[in-house]
Write a sequence for this structure.
């Protein structure tokens, strides 16, 4: 009986580990999609609108990255 309990515990730990990895993957995918959306929206702005925000065309990528990932 102890062997079955240990095996079941190992299976639960393995399932939890797989779920955690899936959750991390899902979170990373959502962040990437948010980054792409932010990048797309900033790219639609003209020079004057970007200047009003204190941005330039060359800073769009880094600004979008920082907004989503905070780095």
């Amino acid at each position: 009986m102890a062997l079955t309990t240990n095996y079941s515990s190992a299976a639960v730990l393995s399932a939890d580990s797989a779920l955690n990895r899936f959750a991390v993957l899902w979170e990373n995918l959502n962040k990437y999609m948010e980054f792409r959306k932010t990048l797309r929206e900033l790219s639609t702005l003209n020079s004057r609108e970007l200047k009003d925000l204190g941005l330039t065309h060359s800073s769009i990528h880094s600004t979008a990255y920082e907004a989503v990932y905070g780095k």
Observations:
- The chain has a mean pLDDT of 88.
- The two ends are 51 Å apart (CA to CA).
- Residues 2-43 form the longest helix (42 residues).
